[in-house]
Specification:
Layout lengths: L8 H19 L2 E2 H11 L8 H13 L3 E7 L5 E7 L1 H26 L7
Antiparallel strand pairs: 1-3, 2-3
Helix pairs in contact: 1-2, 1-3, 1-4
């Protein structure tokens, strides 16, 4: 059976962001800002997710029932949406991790391949 592949750049980018969000929520439930901060910190400040990408991804993952939310009051008594991973989201995370491993291995294979004559 051939390995699954990403159909286009947008799907690849969404899949990568989805993977990062699901992994972040695996550690603990978070509000949107907390998710973006955790991605930034855990990536050694290399990845920054802006709100224009984060919130559409959160809404998409919620529609797919991979995450859910509940309203909570923050330390400064403001209502905030806290997202958490669902059982379906945990299964999706495993699938996305597998796809990422395959994609990473494919890219590593290209980068490590010796240059051939005529190419």
């Amino acid at each position: 059976m051939p390995a699954p592949h990403y159909r286009n750049r947008i799907e690849l980018l969404q899949g990568t962001l989805d993977l990062l969000i699901l992994q972040t929520l695996r550690w603990e439930p978070q509000h949107g800002y907390g998710i973006s901060q955790m991605i930034r910190v855990r990536s050694g400040e290399r990845l920054q997710v802006d709100t224009g990408s984060l919130y559409p991804a959160l809404h998409r993952l919620e529609r797919q029932r991979f995450i859910s939310h509940e309203w909570k009051n923050s330390e400064n008594n403001q209502r905030t949406k806290v997202y958490s991973l669902t059982a379906a989201g945990r299964k999706q995370l495993v699938a996305e991790q597998s796809r990422w491993s395959e994609l990473s291995a494919a890219i590593a294979g290209i980068l490590a391949a010796p240059r051939t004559e005529g190419a």
